[in-house]
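Bug #77: duplicate submission created two jobs. Keeping one. Sequence:
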Amino acid sequence: MEKILTDNILDLISKLNLLELSDLVLKIEKKFNLNINSKQTDEKKNNFSIFLKEIGDKKINLIKLIKEITNLSLKESKDLIEKKNSLIKSNLSKEECDEIEKKIVSLGAKVEIK
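Kept job's structure:
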């Protein structure tokens, strides 16, 4: 019974795109108060995630930019920007986050770096 349940869960997870999977991992870590290992904790000090807070008034250009940054399809990029506080990209250096932030802010949108 457990094997069937586990297989079903893995089947469902395999259908998620990378952003959904990343979001799921974050939620699991938060729900179960997990810290995968101390090495990752040390890496997190040097790795950042960038979240979209507001889309601004240049929605079409923002969708195209998100598509370019994330390598998602146009539809996935559109869906991403329509979600509140959506994760754009994670495990970035501070410099990469700053570069992406400049591009997004130039379109009138707002981001948050964590």
